[in-house]
Amino acid sequence: MQRLYFLLVFCFSLSLWAQEQKDDDLKIGVLLSGGGARGLAHIGVLKEIEKAGIKIDYIAGTSMGAVIGGLYASGYSADQIEEIVLAFDLNDLITDNFPRRSKSFYEKEAAERYVLTIPFDKFKFQFPSSISKGVNLYDEFVQKLAHVQSVTDFSQLPTPFFCMATDIETGESVLLENGFLPLALNASSALPTLFDPIEIDGKLYVDGGVTNNYPIDELKAKGVDYVIGVDVQSTLSDRSKLISAANILLQINQISITNDIERKRIKTDLYIQPALNDYSIISFSEAKNIIDAGKITAKTFAPILKTLAASQNAKATPRKHIPAATEIALSSIDFMGDSKYGRNYLNGKLRLKTPEVYTYEKIQDGINNIAATKNFRQFRYTFEKDTEDFYKMTLNLEDQPFDTTIGVGIHYDDLYKSAALINISQKQMLFQNDLASFDFILGDNLRYKFNYYIDKGFYWSIGVESEFNQFSADLDKKASLIESQDGLDFQSSRFFISDLSNRFFVETLFREEFVFRLGVEHKKILMRSSTAFNSSEPYHYLDDSHYYSAYGVLKLDTRDDLHYPTSGVFFRGDFNLSFDSSSNRFEENHKVFSIAKAMMGYTVSIGERYSFSLTASGGFTIDSPARKSFNFMLGGYGNQFINNIQPFLGYLPLHTNSNSYLKSSFLVDYKIGKSQHLKLTANIATTGNNVFQSDEWRTIQHTGYALGYGIDSFLGPLELTYSFSPEIEKGIWYINLGWWF
Prior knowledge:
This protein has 741 residues and is an alpha+beta fold. The chain is 21% helix and 39% strand.
């Protein structure tokens, strides 16, 4: 009864006041506070304000309130904002998980080798300034606000608007009401430690809620007569929740915010505080419930809202549905900021040529290509009206303050056994666009890989590589390598292989997705087996020679994930023209030979749980030496084998040995939850000498089937696989823990 009495008195008083103001319209301002995921309740409140018919004359916001307020000010209805929000995985938006296609082949390899990469500068580890740079979120701001991207004065938006940010250097609260709207929203919502500060006109800004989470004085200064304030910030916690240092620090920060809101609350004409005790600032997965909570609370103020609408001379007009922007015409691209990276490199990564019309998706792909390099601490792009139909795009870049990183990785599998990787990478060691990287692998098989690369993007890039790889494998008497050693009697044998490779190459991109490489290579290969029963020698050598070759490689990889893809195409074709040096161990003289091989795969998903992958590969050698090291050897599980060794489920490594082969495999991946996978695989193959020169390739000689369980973890894939082949007649277990290297 008391609440009803209050509403009646309020409505009557407002009616009398409105009559006194009959010659002047009642100007209503809406204030939306910050509060992280709790700020999604603003959408529900705006729904009720719209339903009441209120015309909003000014809208202001901070942090998430700025994001919702900015979208509303641009012309979206509350219902459409809800559609936009619910269509996204907001947890993905606030991370820097760039699509795999945005990374170069080297960046893909690095991302799928190292568990952790830490900046290292002046003999000290430098920890990141934030969890995310917010590139994905900013891309969405740009596309969703494309219909107002030429509006630089926010008071000229369909609903006048401003938002608050904090100057991180001076600690001052700053009102943003001019410029590029997506950039202003980005600055207002740049929560410290979660996002990097945002640079605008030479100043660094963070979340406006740090200094002014409820800018009522600034809103009243815009000439509004009546303020509807929506407060979604967290309340103070009781002692039962103050059991960690993090919670205590949050409480200390919340004290000043709470005291500030108490002072400002009395200045608010209509104060709405949705019931959000069950939600935190990171409860983005509860978006729908939070929106509904805002709507439910706002409904209790429906009589007041309707009275306010009736007191206005100018009435609100229904908001039209704003279609999604798809493309933009670019007249030019400018790079601003203090960056050591050359324009050719940046253009090569961006992959945009002007003047041209591009989709926003294409522009975002280019931005992701730059972001995925991790060369830049600050990078944002803006559009400025150039001509009637074209816009000028400007990228503001700031280099990372460090050029050195330390990376680590761990791994176990049945062939290489246990391994720990330590990487050191140095950018801009000799040239602007270069990168030197050295992997040192400790464990049961010592290995290393050195790479020096000068990245020229679309132009011809230059690289030097050196790597050493080795492993041992136990073969049974049915293996081809044992059967092919005439005159020697093996029951079983342990084979050892080492490969030292040095390469110089040039490569270029074409058609944006393909990489073409030409190079020269030197190899030193050692391949030997343990002694046979009827041999007096400690080892039997199958190869101990130097090889020199010219080679070419064509690569394409659009898979969204290396180990658990749900879509994409993979292709790699290799051709080597080689000759071997004479060796004291072998009577065979110099011989010129060639190797051709190719692998291709296609992955498609059906529904959210199932993905299907079909892979085919084949290869042959021409005039190969009698030594076995360049033959095609099938068997085992993995993806980091050397030379012409290929995995084949159902067999142990190196089981088959021939100068040509043809293989196909089919995989069904069923996703369990968010990170678990159940995989069913079948593979078939034909091997032999010159299988492509006869009908032998039509005959299936080898078959294998496997059932595996895997977890996609931050360490990489953790997998256990059971395989069986009718030819082997016994099951084989494969274990893989962590990224392959």
